[in-house]
Structure formats: C-alpha cells, structure tokens
Amino acid sequence: MLKFNEQCKYRFQPNELVDIAKRQASLMNDKIAEEEAFEQVKADHKSKITRIETDVSDCTRRVTSGYEMRTTEVMVLKFRPDPDSAMHIRLDSGRVLRIRKLDLEEKQIKLTDSAPTPYVFEVDFTADGDGDVLDIYSDIQLTKPEAEAVGSFVKLRPLRKKLSDGKK
User: Fold this and answer.
1) Over the Cα atoms of the chain, what is R_g?
2) Long-range contacts of 103-112, Cβ-Cβ distance < 8 Å, separation of 24 or more
3) In terms of DSSP bridges, do strands 96-101 and 74-78 run parallel, antiparallel, or are they unpaired?
4) Which among 97, 62, 93, 58 is positioned nearest to 76, based on CA atoms?
5) Could you give the 3-state DSSP secondary structure of residue 102?
6) Which of 26-30, 57-61, 70-74, 135-139 has the lowest mean pLDDT?
7) Half-sphere exposure of residue 35, counting CA atoms within 13 Å on the CB side?
8) Which of 35, 91, 94, 128 could be 73's S-S partner, Cβ–Cβ 3.0 to 4.6 Å?
9) Angle at alpha carbon of residue 21, lines to 16 and 24, rounded to 5°
10) Which residues, at least 6 apart from 166, have a Cβ–Cβ distance to it below 8 Å?
C-alpha cells in the first residue's frame, strides 16, 4: 500500500472558528496598541526635533547679530560728568551705557538732615552703550557706595584732593 501526504480542503468546525476569531481579535488589539505607541514615540521625537530646531535658530540669530538684549542693573550718577548730565553705568561691566541731560526735577538738590558723603574715589569710565567705544571720561568722582557698586569692574584711585562738601 502506498501512502503520502497531499494538501486537501479542510472545513473548520464551529468551535475552531470561534477560537480563530478570538485570536484574530486579540492580534488586532495588539496591532492597534503598537500603532498608538509608535505614533506617541513619533510625536515625542518630533517635539524634541522642533525644540532643537528652535534652539539652533536662536543660536544662529545670536551669532549673526553678535549680541542679545538682556536686562541689566544700571546705576545713575547724577551731575556727572558735568552739572547738567547724568551717567548711566552698567553694574555688570562698569561701562558707561549713556550720558543724558538731567530734567528740571532731577536738577533740584534734595534737602536732607545729614551732610553729604564726600567724594572719595576717581575713576576713568569707558563709554560703550552699543559696543562701540565712544569716549573716555576721566576723573569722574564717586561716593563710597558708588565706588563699591562699580569697584570690581573699573580701576579706582583715591581722590587727589579730599573734599568735605562733595564739590570740586
């Protein structure tokens, strides 16, 4: 007798069809969950790429312009370099930001109960409001609190002639 294997049509029994349908439903759920996970990973990476692109654009703008605007603490020295002017000094670098004319209210000297603090320091300031050296202001007199505010950035020297009334 001769025996061999051959492909033949097999009709599933109802209980076999139920088992196959359950497996199919489970596999579809797995596929949907994996697609959702893939989309989430894709979205996460897309947001990271977008954030990096924003940082690259910011760096490009900063390199191209050579500067950025920053909030900086500034000290105002009234009546310097002349009685009608005020110097704005950057406290991060000790540089002169600008010199402007005093308005009428600023020119009024306030009456106080205490004597003014005498000027005790002189300094040479370099003006560079926009990064360009404009001028050198020599022998600008400073009070002790003013000198302490800019002393780490500029070279101070004792006042040649000590003044008791704060005027030259």
Assistant:
1) 39
2) 106/78
3) unpaired
4) 97
5) coil
6) 135-139
7) 6
8) 91
9) 130
10) 116, 117, 118, 119, 143
